[in-house]
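User: Hey, quick favor. My workstation is busy. Could you predict this chain's structure for me?
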Amino acid sequence: MKTAIATVPENVIQITPRTKAKSPPPRIAERFKVQSFSNRSGTTSFRVTGIKRDGTRIRQNFTDLLSAQAKQVELNTEYLAQRTDTAV
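Assistant: No problem, here it is.
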């Protein structure tokens, strides 16, 4: 049995495919954010900021992170529970 050997002409350049690096999945923007900041006294506090569906701006300060995160969850839940008045 004869085996065929493939020969590549001299004018052909072999190209190796490049794979693109996978980009991370897009982040979902948080409606309300918890930010840490330092008071004048040097203690760290936390601020919940955001805008409600009706346009009301929220800025509340908390002394501990858990209280700030609880308020953030409360505001996000309130935002998602409200119905919108968009007509199709």
